[in-house]
Amino acid sequence: MAKQQLWTVRTLLVIALIAYPQLVPNFWIVSVGAYAIVLGIIAMSMTFLAAYGGMISMAQMAIAGAAGYTLAIVSLHSASGGAALLPWPSAVAVAMLVGTGAGLLIGIVAARSQGIYMLMSTLAIAMILFYLAQQNTTLLHGFDGFHGVAVPTIGGTSLRDPLPFYYLCLTCGVLLYGLVIYLVRTPFGLVIQGIRDDPRRMTSLGYRVTWHQVAAYGVAGFIAAVGGVLALWYHGGISPGSIGMTATVSVLIAAVIGGLGHPRGAFIGALTYVLIQIFAVDLVGNERFNSLIGFVFLVIVMLSPDGLSGLWRRMRGDRTNLGGVVVTPRQ
To answer: pLDDT tens for residues 93-110?
Structure first.
């Protein structure tokens, strides 16, 4: 009976997501719906590492930025002289490779440490990439970054139009969510979870702990790279501010608000963050937005350490659900 109810809820959610852009103005389609999905994808790359690998990475926005900068460089933009270096399918492929490669390289560095040291090492890498983008004026255009980046047109329809862009983001979000849920049930995902729980025992069983962690960073890098490509098309450009400390902390806040225990928490947190970001200006003004989001963050964490998804689960009296495997919460 519980499974039937779960499938009913999921079916209704899918119908609602598909029908959503037909019922609201363009602002709500793009600035709320599409942007929440884009932010949720990047946050999900962090949630994947945290929930199943026990690793907190602060470099996921930087990885998204690496993919976005790569796509901007090889695409048509306002300073390119009227020509793109690569056709858009090849440009997107190159951007995805760079983002995934950045994730692997960061994993090689971060997997040599644990806990707070891993977090700080990834934060340091994120800041290195930020200052590199800010100071490089020849290739990355320094403070200005890239503006007027062309968005692909397929069959006469621009992917930047509200409806096509929303459905593109929704499709990517659903596929990546499904990828994560699938991976955590594979032998690779089970090994990652075993390493999270007891790395010493997994080493004694013959698994190469470090390389599995690096591979997990590669998967997270691929997810973040998709978010970076979509973010570039959403903003129409990219600059150092897109990967700075504020953007990095935004991803962390979205992931924690939604809950780091399950990938769905990334999208719940992203939607909550976007709604607060949009309407807080009318309530408290630009100057007090950070105070408001900090207050909301503290309230949610105090009421539910595992975020909004965990709060909803406890209100229903459910047990903890990690990757589809139901377990009893630790006391």
So the answer is: 999 999 999 999 999 999
pTM of the model: 0.91
- For residue 142, the one-letter residue type is G
- Letter string b/e over residues 229-255, b meaning 16 or more CB atoms within 10 A of that residue's CB: bbbbbbbbbbbbebbbeebbebbbbbb
Q: Give dist(CA 100, CA 79) in Å, integer.
A: 27
| C-alpha–C-alpha distance, residues 122 and 157, integer Å | 39
CB of 283 closer than 8 Å to CB of 292: yes
| Alpha carbon separation from 26 to 31, 77, 119, 147 (Å, rounded) | 8, 24, 38, 22
pLDDT digits (tens, 9 = 90+) for 275-327: 988 887 777 766 777 777 788 888 888 877 788 887 766 666 655 444 443 33
Query: Checking DSSP bridges between strand 237-238 and strand 320-322, what pairing results, if any?
Result: unpaired
Where are the domains positioned within the chain?
34-241
